[in-house]
């Protein structure tokens, strides 16, 4: 099968595509943001460097910075429109299926082209907050409905998003629920000792992420006499400044880290007892899966009940239902400290990692899904 993938360059996309390396499929990638060649995917036919028509980087940025209005007016002079570039790729490749990743990144820019080529099957993969956060938002719901009615196939990272697609008019075939980046390689946590009551927290405080209420909840418990160790990772410069402003940086037993290599993050998870991820919007959280792989007890927000598809509250982890309510989060953490998880919960998490999220298992099911496309 000749598959034309439409996506930005991201870790999830690279991991997904790598599942198909040893298949008999002929893989093409249309670099929707024109971010450049991916050397690790040298076996993929990559359509990059399609955008810039005239002007080199220096001249382009000068006009964009000094004369933004003029730059916007002349954008079609400077750049080749994405619809034109994608139409050319479609005509040259003649794919058996177009596979778009993320609704607003991989579908929206090419919708008009796909409407004109209804004979070509269109497959969509949802990622995280991709459709859930924007569903029913003013000005965006009609576009979502347009795409859903044109799609022939869909893959989601949670069951919740399948139902949103159907609600918005999708009548095609749902090919399965898989992690956004495919499965995870087998990972055996080290035998390192885990410090009791130690917490590793995803430090995102942005449009969706809500790490600040978690840190405040933990510090309230600490003030009440609980001995806690707190490690926050992935903190942006802006969030770091906010933590400084609120005097939360120089507190003993609180470690703040910005960027971390993936291997170092997994090793750090292996020395902590609990993992906390908190946001107002997400699908199946990839970092939560990695935390479970590393042996942490997961405490995770539950937007739209997506996390409840993985975590049975108080059995194999804990659910945060109100991600901005410090008192609620504090009570959830307190319950987790007092009860941990049951033997049944430990077995359940091991089963998740060995079966539902195992890379070999997921790759096998993903290849089956592609073979069902007519």
Q: What would you say this structure looks like, in words?
A:
With 374 residues, the protein is an alpha/beta fold. The protein has 2 domains: 2-183 and 359-371, Rossmann fold, CATH 3.40.50; 195-356, Glycogen Phosphorylase B (Rossmann fold, 3-Layer(aba) Sandwich). 40% of the residues lie in helices and 17% in strands. The chain has a 7-stranded parallel beta sheet, sandwiched between helices. It has a 6-stranded parallel beta sheet with strand order 10-9-8-11-12-13, with helices on both faces. Helix 10 links the parallel strand 8 and strand 9 (229-233). The protein is globular, with a radius of gyration of 22 Å. The protein starts with a strand and ends with a helix. The model has no long low-confidence stretch (mean pLDDT 91).
Strand-helix topology:
Layout: E1 2-7, H1 11-18, E2 26-31, E3 45-47, H2 57-66, H3 68-73, H4 75-78, H5 82-93, E4 97-101, H6 103-107, H7 111-116, E5 122-125, H8 141-150, E6 153-156, H9 159-167, E7 173-177, E8 195-202, H10 211-223, E9 229-233, H11 237-245, E10 254-256, H12 262-269, E11 272-277, H13 286-293, E12 297-301, E13 318-320, H14 326-339, H15 343-356, H16 359-371
Parallel strand pairs: 1-2, 1-4, 2-3, 4-5, 5-6, 6-7, 8-9, 8-11, 9-10, 11-12, 12-13
Helix pairs in contact: 10-14
- Using the 3D structure, state the CATH architecture of the largest domain: 3-Layer(aba) Sandwich
Class derived from helix and strand content: alpha/beta
Number of strands: 13
Helicity, as a percent range: 25-40%
What is the percentage of strand-forming residues?
15-25%
- SSE series: EHEEHHHHEHHEHEHEEHEHEHEHEEHHH
- Kindly report the name of the CATH homologous superfamily of the largest domain: Glycogen Phosphorylase B
Strand order of the largest sheet: 3-2-1-4-5-6-7
| Major sheet characteristics | 7 strands, parallel
The tally of structural domains comes to 2
Write down the overall mean pLDDT.
91
Give the terminus-to-terminus CA distance. Answer: 10 Å
Silhouette? globular
CATH C-level class of the largest domain is Alpha Beta
CATH level-3 fold name of the largest domain: Rossmann fold
Q: How large, in whole angstroms, is the Cα Rg?
A: 22 Å
């Amino acid at each position: 099968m000749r598959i034309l993938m439409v996506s930005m360059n991201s870790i999830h996309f690279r991991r997904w595509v790598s599942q198909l390396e040893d298949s008999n499929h002929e893989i093409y990638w249309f670099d929707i943001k024109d971010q450049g060649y991916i050397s690790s995917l040298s076996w993929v036919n990559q359509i990059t460097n399609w955008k810039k028509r005239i002007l080199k980087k220096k001249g382009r940025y000068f006009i964009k910075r000094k004369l933004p209005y003029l730059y916007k007016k002349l954008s079609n002079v400077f750049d080749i429109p994405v619809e034109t570039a994608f139409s050319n790729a479609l005509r040259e490749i003649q794919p058996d299926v177009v596979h778009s990743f993320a609704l607003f990144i991989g579908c929206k820019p090419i919708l008009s082209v796909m409407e004109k080529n209804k004979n070509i099957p269109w497959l969509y993969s949802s990622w995280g907050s991709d459709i859930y956060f924007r569903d029913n938002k003013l000005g965006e719901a009609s576009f979502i409905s347009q795409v859903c009615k044109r799609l022939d196939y869909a893959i989601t990272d949670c069951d919740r998003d399948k139902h949103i697609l159907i609600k918005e008019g999708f009548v095609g075939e749902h090919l399965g629920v898989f992690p956004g980046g495919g499965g995870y390689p087998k990972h055996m946590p080290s035998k390192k000792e885990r410090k009791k009551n130690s917490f590793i927290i995803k430090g995102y405080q942005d449009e969706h992420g809500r790490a600040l209420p978690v840190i405040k909840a933990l510090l309230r418990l600490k003030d009440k006499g609980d001995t806690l160790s707190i490690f926050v990772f992935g903190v942006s410069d802006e969030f770091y400044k906010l933590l400084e402003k609120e005097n939360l940086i120089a507190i003993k037993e609180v470690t703040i880290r910005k960027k971390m290599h993936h291997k170092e993050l997994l090793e750090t998870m292996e020395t902590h007892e609990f993992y906390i991820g908190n946001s107002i919007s997400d699908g199946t959280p990839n970092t939560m899966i990695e935390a479970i792989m590393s042996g942490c007890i997961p405490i995770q927000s539950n937007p739209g009940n997506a996390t409840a598809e993985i975590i049975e509250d108080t059995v194999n982890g804990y659910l945060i239902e109100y991600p901005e309510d410090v008192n609620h989060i504090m009570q959830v953490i307190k319950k987790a400290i007092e009860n941990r998880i049951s033997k049944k919960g430990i077995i359940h998490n091991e089963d998740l990692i060995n079966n539902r999220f195992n890379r070999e298992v997921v790759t096998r099911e993903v290849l089956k899904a592609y073979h069902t496309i007519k």
